[in-house]
Design goal:
single chain, 550 residues, disordered N terminus
Length: 550
């Protein structure tokens, strides 16, 4: 256990004179001292001293808004920010060096092997994910920072337990855009003491951002790129403004020019969909674009409308595609909003992945991904995501066909698009809930949680890439179907007892082995899908109960 205080200029407690600081509760494994240096942790402490209180205020505002929506007050385009939307003159900073062409981005966790695979992938951008694709064990959090630090300096190599050696061999590596954890997530292995002597768990967002920025911002600029970030789970322009102030403070702290940081915001919550322009405006000096975070967006709708009646109940997860009307409205509004303000619009990730041992599965994945990326490129998106290196040529071909030699299609203003609040809220699809859909949700959620508890945040399950966002959809649909008294086509009611039987089926079919976490995963699933209360995020429950000690 290590106590690290911030620099001498940090605020002190008036009554004791003791500096506000950070206590590192996690084990200092090999090389962790290279990331958790006194100066780096002092910077993270300074971020908490300046912004920790505002973070809590914003999280409280989220809860109030969620309560209002749940009690019948629909979100809408804000009257108090209409002047921002009506002012046609302002623009965002736009792409920084190395972000001009983002036609294909690969996403994935930051362990050494996945880092090397991403850098060798041939994608234009790598989303280095410390959020939904990373299980936030202490080893993963700090180990991911080590992998990124080594990669940025050209020093990363990895040898697997089987003896296979991995090295970065690509002549041109993707531009790194790092995704820190969302504002709602904490880092229990670090504890912050504020100026009044109050101890509190650190913010996962500020820890991830702070350590990465402190160690790498200058090196990235010197390499002709920059400190770039994806911002996850934002629910308001005020949350975006908080991030903007974090960026400004951080640039000044290390002596970089204002506007060096570039951020791409994932529009993956329902409230944020009504504030796209305001989010861009708040981040305008640091903003590169928006991304259509499709899976978390669906989860957000279910979460906010879970108790609002049958008309907000969706069918099987597989039927909630990007072509249903409310998803079309959301993505087309995103493209129009971005291009009007000089921001890139980045498409989402199709969950289909190839299987190198099954040509039929691979062919189907290529077909599905090609159709998805063709639609996005045709709609005006400037780039898209893939989850597997083998899908990059397929996605690249669809965007090459539209972009040609141009780095983007910002000139496509999509003035034909007119989206209303009712368009964004009309989630009626008109399809039944099937036994396969219910069973699939139970199976995916438990199997994903089992892997997550073992430290894996992105998991291939039934030829789809699952992460925390898709697991959230699965468990949220189960909760909503139960509480809205839904039935299958044959009249079978979806009850807790019915789902308990499916849980037993999943556990019976699971490939059990010594040290597996299936029983723990099933218990977590019961808590987040079958209890009367609805936890806002399944990862909060699982983290507090199982990952704090790792």
């Amino acid at each position: 256990m290590t106590l690290i205080a911030p620099p001498p200029t940090a605020p002190t407690t008036p009554t004791t004179g003791a500096p506000a600081g950070f206590e590192i509760l996690g084990t200092m494994h090999e090389r962790f001292d290279e990331i958790l240096t006194p100066d780096a942790v002092a910077f993270v402490a300074a971020l908490h001293a300046r912004f920790g209180g505002r973070r809590h205020d914003r999280l409280a505002a989220r809860m109030r808004r969620r309560f209002e929506i749940g009690n019948g007050r629909d979100p809408g385009f804000r009257d108090d920010t209409a002047h921002i939307r009506e002012d046609t003159q302002w623009r965002v900073a736009g792409a920084g060096p190395g972000l001009e062409d983002r036609r294909v981005e690969i996403t994935g966790p930051t362990d050494p092997k996945m880092t090397i695979n991403a850098l060798n992938s041939g994608a234009k951008v790598w989303l280095a994910d410390q959020e939904d694709a990373t299980s936030p064990t202490w080893r993963n959090v700090v180990g991911g920072q080590l992998a990124l630090r080594d990669a940025i300096r050209g020093q990363l190599a990895f040898t697997s337990p089987e003896g296979k050696r991995y090295e970065v061999t690509a002549e041109r590596t993707p531009t790194i855009v790092m995704r820190p954890r969302g504002w709602h997530l904490s880092e229990a292995h670090m504890e912050y003491t504020d100026r009044a002597g109050r101890r509190m768990t650190a913010s996962g967002s500020l820890v991830d951002f702070g350590l990465y920025f402190f160690h790498n911002a200058r090196a990235l600029v010197d390499a002709g790129r920059g400190p770039y970030f994806y911002l996850a789970k934002l629910e308001s322009s005020e949350e975006a403004g908080l991030w903007d102030d974090v960026f400004t403070f951080s640039e000044d702290y290390v002596g970089l020019p204002h506007g060096t940081v570039r951020a791409t915001v994932l529009i993956e919550t329902l409230p944020a969909a009504f504030e796209m322009e305001e989010i861009l405006f708040e981040l305008r000096d640091h903003c590169a674009g928006l991304n259509a975070g499709r899976w978390d967006y669906i989860f957000s709708i279910i979460k906010n409308y879970r108790g609002r009646g049958a008309r907000f109940v969706m069918p099987d997860r597989s039927e909630v595609t990007m072509t249903v009307p409310f998803m079309r409205a959301y993505t087309e509004l995103l493209v129009k909003t971005c291009h009007a303000r000089g921001a890139h619009a980045i498409g989402g990730m199709s969950a289909f992945i190839p299987n190198r041992r099954d040509p039929e599965v691979t062919a189907r994945a290529f077909e599905k991904v090609a159709a998805d990326k063709k639609r996005e490129a045709g709609d005006g998106f400037d780039g898209t995501w893939v989850a597997h290196p083998d899908l990059i040529p397929t996605a690249m071909a669809e965007f090459d066909a539209v972009l040609g030699d141009r780095p983007n299609q910002l000139d496509r203003r999509r003035e034909d698009v007119a989206v209303t609040a009712s368009d964004l809220l009309d989630v009626h699809i008109g399809l039944p809930i099937t036994e396969a859909g219910v069973r699939g949700n139970v199976s995916v959620a438990i199997r994903y949680l089992e892997a997550w508890l073992r430290g894996q945040g992105a998991v291939a399950i039934d030829d789809l890439m699952e992460d925390a966002a898709t697991a959230e959809i699965s468990r949220s649909q189960i909760w909503q179907w139960i509480h809205q008294d839904r039935e299958l086509a044959d009249g079978t009611r979806i009850t807790r007892e019915y789902v308990e039987g499916l849980i037993d089926d999943v556990l019976d079919a699971a490939p059990r082995a010594e040290g597996d976490r299936f029983d723990d995963a099933a218990d977590i699933f019961r808590e987040v899908a079958l209890r009367e209360e609805f936890p806002a995020f399944l990862t909060l429950t699982a983290y507090a109960r199982h990952l704090v000690e790792l």
